[in-house]
Amino acid sequence: xxxxxxxxxxxxxxxxxxxxxxxxxxxxxxxxxxxxxxxxxxxxxxxxxxxxxxxxxxxxxxxxxxxxxxxxxxxxxxxxxxxxxxxxxxxxxxxxxxxxxxxx
Length: 104
Prior knowledge:
Helix content: under 10%
Structural class: mainly beta
Order of helices and strands: EEEEEEEE
Strand content: 35-45%
Number of helices: 0
Strand order of the largest sheet: 1-2-3-4
Distance between the termini: 35 Å
Number of strands: 8
């Protein structure tokens, strides 16, 4: 049986939510309003500033990042340009968005 070793890639975060692996590890702290990318060399970068509590993460086939803005009830797309609204859920979501911003 092969023994696997775990290691800490980054520390100092509080309440990471909806972390997803995609070309590195992404974490989404709800209180900081930012999405972080942690790569396998322990490098931490901010990849998105999200107003009003980011929660779910997803990725489009072209690699663009999708993030659910919980209190605004929006799915925001972060690509090469500034963030844009990918989906407006205000008419169909009666409360805060929860879960993942996943596409298939």
